[in-house]
Write a structure and sequence with these properties.
With 664 residues, this protein is an alpha/beta fold. It has three domains: 221 residues, Porin (Beta Barrel); 142 residues, 2-enoyl-CoA Hydratase, Chain A, domain 1; 194 residues, 2-enoyl-CoA Hydratase, Chain A, domain 1. The chain has 17 helices and 34 strands. A 14-stranded antiparallel beta barrel has the order 1-2-3-4-5-6-7-8-10-11-12-13-14-15. Strands 16, 17, 18, 19, 21, 25 and 26 form a seven-stranded parallel β-sheet that branches. Strands 27, 30, 31, 32 and 33 form a five-stranded parallel β-sheet that branches. A hairpin with a 3-residue loop joins strand 10 and strand 11. Helix 7 crosses helix 8. The radius of gyration is 34 Å and the shape is globular. The relative contact order is 0.08. The N terminus is likely disordered.
Length: 664
Amino acid sequence: MRVFSILVIIVFLSLSFSQSMSGSVAFPEAYSDFTINPGVAGVVSANYLHLLLNHETGENQFSIYTGGKGYFLGGEYSDEAKHLISGIGLGSKRFGVGYYYRWIFRDDKKAYSWRLGFLARPYKWFSLGFCYSRNWGDKIRFGLALRPATEIITFSTDLNYNDKFDINSMRLILNPIKGLYLYANWNTENTYGFGIRFDILHLSLMTCGNNDKNSKISFTTFSRPLESILSPRIKNLKVTISGKYDEAPFLTKKSFPKFVYNLSGVILADKRPDRLLIKLDSPELSFAQYEELRELLREYRQNGGKVILYTDGLANGSMFLASVADSLIMNPMGFVNFTGIGVEVIYMKRLLDKLGVRADFVQIGKYKTAAEQFMADTMSKYMREELMDFLSNLDTLIVSKVAEGRGKSVDLVRRWINDAPQTASGAKQAGMVDTLMYWDDFEKKCGWKKAKKLNYVLKYRNPISYSWADKARIAIVTIDGAIIHGKSRPGGIFSSKSAGDETICKIIKSASDDKNVKGIILRVNSPGGSAFASEMIWQAIKRAREKKPVWASMGSLAGSGGYYIPSAASKIYADKLTLTGSIGVVGGKFSIRGLLDKIGLNVNSIYLSPNANFWSYSDTFDIYQRERFRQNLEEVYRIFKERVLWGRGRLTPDSLEKLAQGRI
């Protein structure tokens, strides 16, 4: 197909010369070119305003056009006539169809014309266009365009049909550097022309002329930035970190992975801002999220950036983050609650006994203590051992990093914790913060109002692209919440979010089948859940891994099924403060017979087999049922370990068993 297209282009080019600097129906790249092929209205990706001054022999013409995705309007004025144009379009990046209607006013006479256009870019190197017109210009026009070397060189040629086929024109466009375009046209009337275009931020400037002394100059402004010969220099970037950031946000909630991705793309770029101004406004992040942000800011500082952070108050997590700043500024009325690490676990067995509810669970793995709170009055030695180990590591990391960031000793940071909470003045005296300042004074002194927001800078990281190809992408599949069989649920006031195997498997398959997706990232933040659903997602990842790389990124929590799933990935990345592992199985049920008796309800049952009451809410397991259930869970545990061994090739059954048993 490609060879055939090249041969067709060569034949056309060998027969043709150009007539003027008009565009091609196969390459309506200028935004006034919807008058040539209205199909461009289907593929345009930004709103625009276009002004055109055209000087032809004996006549001057002024045109103005505006449009965007799916529409365009225009007007043309000359000494001879006035034109009003209106059109619509439908399409995507690769295909577009459009229609316009033209009203013509000449002296006391009125006329009209219309045009239907189609544009297709089936390959990144090949484009074709077709137009059919009534009462204006060429009745039928067909064009082909070829890019033998990406966007650097574009050839195009057009055919007209008016009772017979004629060669219309040939066009050459060079794009040697971003934002600079050089044009050359030839046609069968032996006229030739040249043009040049500069794209600067949101503005495109073009001028051209030909050997008949015709000339054009145009100005176009866009709602989105262009690939520019110049890029804005950002000296100060400002970011506010407030509230909660979810892994998979719903509606108005904020996405933590997206925030980190966008921020890193700006502050770690070659043209990064000189200073990063951060306002902590009551953030509600996990320790793992604080760690990811802290590492990002640390790398920015290592590359020469300066971090200035303002806060109304500090707690354990925010102190961990803020300690990396070059300058830590605090509200004089704020408090520092850097009180240290601890955890409280509520045991509910006595409450359940009073209610008449019995928890009947089986655990495989002595450290698999997820149901312990319902079956015991106090913490088991296994849970205490695991929590002490995790909390000790967390405490050591936070204290050492705060000491490193603030340039203090570990012993002094320990004293800060023991003396907490502190007032702002006490924190400054102790060296926990650098400066006390009210927000209004900070805004003026540090230039907060003049600093650029993250979204402003991101616009220039995503300019309008004139590429005909879909960009290569990395798919991010988020597994957030409990893992269930069925469809994912966003959660709400009365329910928590969940990751359904049907939804996740469908997304993974779609990403693995998409040739423009070059890899898949699994972002996991889950305590686990259904073993069946975990296995279905694991299998989907395994199949996807046969086609392209699959990486797993663990958030705050990736335990049990939350580890089962990413074990199929090519590589797994975790934060130091990620809570993960818990390779084990637990399952069971609650019996509410006692509660029903207390409130005067009597259950009468009819069972036709010994195990018909296996999942009854009014009975606990009998000895046989409990043993049978244990055997089932042990089989799931065996499969769980097999899946981990398949994905983590360096482990052996013995070495894995030492890490399993429900350990975190």
